Amino acid sequence: MKISKGKTLVLNVCVIALTIATVARAEQASQIVSPPLKEYRIVRSVTEDAQRCIDCHALESRGIVADWAASRHGHANISCIDCHAAGPADSDISKNHLALDKIPISVIVSPKDCSRCHPSEAAQFVRSKHSNTLELIWKFDPWLVDGMNNSIERQTGCYHCHGSVVKIEDGKLNTDTWPNVGVGRINPDGSRGSCSSCHTRHKFSLSEARKPEACGQCHLGPDHPQIEIYEESKHGAIYHAEGDSWNWNAAPGTWTPGVDYRTPSCSVCHISGVGEIATTHDVTERMAWETQAPLTVRPSEFTPWPAKTDWQTERQKMEQICLSCHSQTWTKGHFERLDAAVANYNNNYYEPMKKLIDGLYKKKLLSEEKNMDEQLEIEMYELWHHEGRRARFGAAMMAPDYAWWHGFYELKKRCMVIEEQAEQLLKSGRPAKVFEVKSSDGDTTKPDFQK
Ligand code: HEC
Ligand code: HEC
Ligand code: HEC
Ligand code: HEC
Ligand code: HEC
Ligand code: HEC
Ligand code: HEC
Ligand code: HEC
Predict the structure, then answer these.
(1) HSE of 279 in the Cβ direction (CA atoms, 13 Å)?
(2) Do residues 103 and 126 both lie within one domain?
(3) What is the DSSP string of 289-300?
């Protein structure tokens, strides 16, 4: 959908009208109370078609119109029709809605739709792991590739965070795939992702996305407890103690450490512009490690999705953020410890256990057919996916409880269990018990990522 010539014209007329009004006012006595500007602009600059949407929806969906009216979009006269009007090529036109209004609409507003007005944010987001996560996880995740869980488990679990492949059936959105605002959703127009994962409709608020809660809805739990880690860090503690009084609404590019906030949120370290470091919607920037992977590697060496970044440059960017509040010694010291924790995990925990397990596969004591149907496979999975990640994330983001008690301590225990079970298998010489997965519906068809 495009802004029609008519709309641009009306906006121009409005600006002229405003200018004349301002000049006229300035010539009159200064006590004259100026009329409420927002009301004036809405009435004068919104097309009839656009106004119809607002009027009817003010009755039909009060909450939506209230959120929109309070948003920057509302103030800039970007209205319902600018985001929801569907083009003739759109496959997701709401047929039911044509009975309510002649303008065809679709409910989905994809990153492609937002990109008309926000091209740079969309371009960065499109190359991110966030936007491509669905393809990425279908390449190697054992639950999906081996069909170890079923559709309803994926719909209510994985896809809520990672996104669904939205399907249209008989002109309607298929309820197995909709509603969904997962961060890597694949939209009917072929674009990937959902901007409203972090900027919820219809406020699309900058301050909301800057707060850690916006990330914590997905970044939590035993395998990626970033929000819990943040809460435990001094940064998080100070945010909770006094964050209410910080300035979360500073204009893009002007949000300043020490002036607007005292400690960083997730957004400050991973997304926001700080000093010379530009804002990015590609969260792989500023990363020097793949600390979520089984064996920690550099982002450019991560085979399922090799980043086009150079880790040294990205590390420097991250350090630059810290240096806006900390000294060189403090900052370098932190990263030296992170790198040592990564080496400790790789060399003393992951590698030896991997070697042990590989030996069992070679001797056919474990079956290679499926990845998650033997006790030892689950133990190995949890070693890197749960405590192995927690140890590394805790060290990266200053959370001692996660680095040690939920991390390295649990790793030690897990290694004991793995060693014990491996020894028993070797002693008996009989293959491990294979568990039948009762809940699997065998649906392992890969979605078509070409569209
Ligand atoms: C005469 C009243 C009326 C007008 C005019 C109207 N709508 Fe709606 N619209 C509705 C109602 C009622 C629904 C809820 C239908 C439902 O529950 O599925 C709706 C639903 C929607 C939805 C959600 C569709 C879905 O599948 O979830 C969107 C988006 C939408 N309208 C946008 C617009 C836009 C944009 C315009 C202006 C071009 C507009 N509406 C004009 C009454 C109206
Ligand atoms: C900046 C773009 C934008 C504008 C402006 C906008 N919307 Fe939306 N709207 C969205 C997005 C994004 C969604 C969520 C769908 C998605 O995830 O793609 C949505 C969803 C909806 C829904 C379905 C929500 C639900 O919970 O069922 C309705 C109805 C709707 N919009 C109506 C409106 C109306 C009415 C207006 C004008 C007052 C409006 N929208 C303005 C982007 C926009
Ligand atoms: C027709 C053009 C247009 C479309 C489409 C559009 N926006 Fe915007 N958006 C704007 C303009 C203009 C502003 C700046 C408003 C201002 O600062 O007064 C803005 C501001 C924003 C902001 C900053 C808000 C703030 O608090 O400063 C966010 C976030 C945003 N848009 C997200 C989105 C998303 C997400 C979509 C798609 C769902 C979208 N926009 C679609 C024009 C658009
Ligand atoms: C609560 C939200 C949530 C749910 C539910 C969820 N994930 Fe994730 N997943 C994440 C987040 C957040 C990450 C990023 C972890 C990191 O980098 O620290 C992630 C990472 C991953 C990765 C690693 C990607 C990489 O770059 O190495 C895979 C694979 C994955 N998830 C698959 C799945 C599958 C399959 C399911 C369901 C069986 C699932 N996830 C359920 C949020 C979720
Ligand atoms: C992972 C969460 C996340 C997603 C997904 C996301 N954003 Fe943002 N966005 C943010 C954060 C955080 C900021 C605040 C950056 C700052 O401090 O200025 C932001 C800022 C913005 C701004 C204000 C400009 C600026 O430089 O601050 C716009 C416009 C915007 N986003 C549009 C989009 C669009 C369009 C999409 C989808 C293509 C999108 N965002 C997806 C988190 C997200
Ligand atoms: C709707 C769920 C969701 C939200 C909200 C979300 N993320 Fe993510 N995030 C994910 C998933 C899923 C992944 C894993 C992507 C992959 O590796 O396949 C991820 C990965 C990441 C990564 C790792 C990137 C890499 O290259 O390894 C970072 C950093 C990140 N997110 C930061 C953030 C920040 C900061 C916010 C909030 C501003 C945020 N995320 C909001 C779901 C989410
Ligand atoms: C003080 C800065 C800081 C804050 C605040 C912060 N992070 Fe991080 N984060 C880091 C650093 C440093 C790393 C490790 C970077 C590297 O690879 O060298 C990291 C790593 C990550 C990763 C792992 C990426 C991967 O796949 O290896 C994710 C995901 C992530 N952060 C998300 C978040 C979320 C979500 C929040 C808020 C709840 C948050 N971060 C808060 C600095 C921060
Ligand atoms: C906006 C300012 C700001 C930024 C940016 C920032 N910090 Fe901090 N940091 C603080 C403040 C304030 C404290 C609390 C100092 C104290 O304990 O008196 C703190 C505390 C810490 C601590 C001490 C934790 C503890 O529990 O003792 C470490 C380590 C740390 N920061 C590392 C970093 C690193 C690494 C980065 C960059 C990835 C970073 N910080 C970015 C302001 C910041």
Answers:
(1) 17
(2) no
(3) -BTTSSS-B-GG
From residue 132, how far is each of 90, 185, 192, 282, 426 by CA, in Å?
A: 22, 9, 7, 11, 42
Phi-psi region of 350 (alpha: psi -120 to 50; beta: other; left: phi over 0): alpha
Closest by CA to 79, choosing from 97, 112, 105, is 105
Q: Whose CA is nearest to atom 24 of ligand 1?
A: 107
Residue nearest ligand 1's atom 2 by CA: 56
Tell which residue, 225, 232, 234, 215, has the closest CA to residue 325: 234
Do 67 and 142 sit in the same domain of this protein? no
Read off the pLDDT of residues 295-352 as tens digits, 9 standing for 90 and up.
999 999 999 999 999 999 999 999 999 999 999 999 999 999 999 999 999 999 999 9
Specify if 39 maps to a domain. yes
Determine the 3-state secondary structure of 74 from DSSP.
helix
Give the number of whichever ligand sits closest to the CA of residue 130: 6
128-133: list long-range contacts, CB under 8 Å, 24+ apart.
128/281, 128/282, 128/283, 128/284, 129/283, 129/284, 129/305, 130/183, 130/184, 130/193, 130/197, 130/283, 131/183, 131/184, 131/192, 131/193, 132/184, 132/192, 132/305, 133/162, 133/163, 133/183, 133/184
Pocket test for ligand 2, best of 47, 81, 101, 107 (most atoms within 8 A of CB): 107
Q: What is the pLDDT of residue 2?
A: 38
Reduced to 3 states (helix: H, G, I; strand: E, B; else coil), residue 103 is coil
Q: Is residue 442 part of a domain?
A: no
Structural domain for 46, as ranges: 5-107
Of 147, 175, 197, at which residue does a domain stop? 197
Pocket residues for ligand 1 (CB within 6 Å)? 49, 52-53, 56-57, 60, 80-81, 84, 94, 97, 100-101, 103, 105, 107
96 and 130 part of one domain: no
Q: Do 33 and 62 sit in the same domain of this protein?
A: yes
Q: Tell me: do 168 and 145 sit in the same domain.
A: yes
Structure confidence at residue 42 (pLDDT): 43
The strand pairing partners of 107, in sequence order, are: none
Q: 196 CB under 6 A from ligand 2?
A: yes
3 state SS of 170: coil
Whether 38 maps to a domain, the answer reads yes
Residues 87 and 135 in one domain: no
Tell me if 20 is assigned to some domain. yes
Tally of domains within the chain: 2
Last residue of a domain, one of 197, 232, 254: 197
**Is residue 208 predicted with pLDDT exceeding 50?**
yes
Residues with CB under 6 A from ligand 7: 212, 215-216, 219, 226-227, 230, 235, 264, 266, 269-270, 287-292, 318, 396-397
